[in-house]
Design goal:
By secondary structure, the chain is an alpha/beta fold. The protein contains 9 helices and 5 strands, in the order E-E-H-E-E-H-E-H-H-H-H-H-H-H. A 5-stranded mixed β-sheet has the order 2-1-3-5-4, sandwiched between helices. Helix 1 packs across helix 4, helix 5 runs parallel beside helix 8 and helix 8 runs antiparallel to helix 9. The longest helix is centred in the last third of the chain and has 26 residues.
Length: 263
């Protein structure tokens, strides 16, 4: 079963998987499988938004960063959360928290067929990592890293996503080729996010993405290499191969990757 939300009416409805469009069905199935493997005791509920994208602060259709909602998260969306949850069948699992993840149908339709499953797995890794990053206390950022607080949070998100992505390959869900593509994508997304935050902090908000990256490389010539090397080192950690105490694995990976930024 896949839950849909009409952007105009904000009403949710459920369809059997076979009744959904092919790409949507494939994306949802891969996403649900991935989050069930790496969910950190979360129940991630994928909701596909049809029609108008209703979260202006999360981007426009085709460019949105998805929208995650939890109950009583302070965003004033409890009614929408309840509307989506009401369409779920009873679940025997007792997850610590249920997270509603909204993504536009248009963004799924824009994916090439061969990219649907990898994109769903990548989304799952970033969504679970995003929730976990938000639950962490804001630790002191070592000044030697050259990152500000918000840049470091973007780096942390990339590290956690990389650990979870590696976990999917260990569970056999992704092939070696998929794992390499996902690692490259996570590295690229993390570097772009850090560069965007840097540009915002430097009052360079009007620059296009390419201009931001060019300016960042000129001002921080070694940082891209350091960020890339740190995130790619995750798969070399022996602890990343273990499914025991996943939260501890994430925090250990962050400590390891942060240390690499200091070299």
């Amino acid at each position: 079963m896949i839950i849909f939300l009409c952007g105009q009416s904000r009403k949710a409805y459920a369809l059997r998987a076979m009744e959904a469009p092919v790409k949507t069905r494939e994306f949802a199935q891969a996403y649900v499988e991935a989050t069930s493997l790496i969910g950190l005791d979360l129940r991630m509920v994928l909701v596909v938004v049809t029609g108008s994208w209703i979260f202006p602060h999360a981007g426009s259709p085709g460019q949105e960063k998805r929208c995650l909602i939890t109950e009583d998260d302070g965003a004033g969306r409890n009614e929408l959360y309840s509307e989506c949850i009401s369409r779920l069948p009873p679940s025997p699992s007792a997850a610590s928290e249920t997270v509603v993840v909204l993504i536009s149908e248009a963004s799924i339709n824009d994916l090439p067929g061969e990219d649907v499953k990898p994109a769903a797995m990548l989304s799952a890794c970033f969504d679970v990592a995003s929730w976990f990053v938000d639950t962490l206390p804001h630790a002191e950022v070592p000044s030697e890293t050259g990152l500000t607080k918000h840049q470091y949070m973007a780096f942390t998100l990339g590290v956690f996503a990389a650990v979870l992505s590696f976990g999917l390959s260990q569970y056999g869900m992704s092939t070696a080729a998929d794992a390499r593509r996902m690692e490259a994508a996570i590295t690229g997304i993390t570097i772009e996010k850090v560069a965007e935050i840097w540009a915002h902090e430097q009052n360079l908000r009007e620059l296009a993405q390419t201009e931001i990256m060019n300016a960042y490389m000129q001002n921080k010539p070694n940082m891209i290499r350091q960020l890339s090397g740190a995130i790619r080192s995750v798969s070399d950690l022996p602890e990343a191969h273990s499914s025991k105490e996943p939260e501890g694995v994430l925090l250990h990976a962050l400590t390891h990757c942060t240390r690499l930024l200091l070299l």
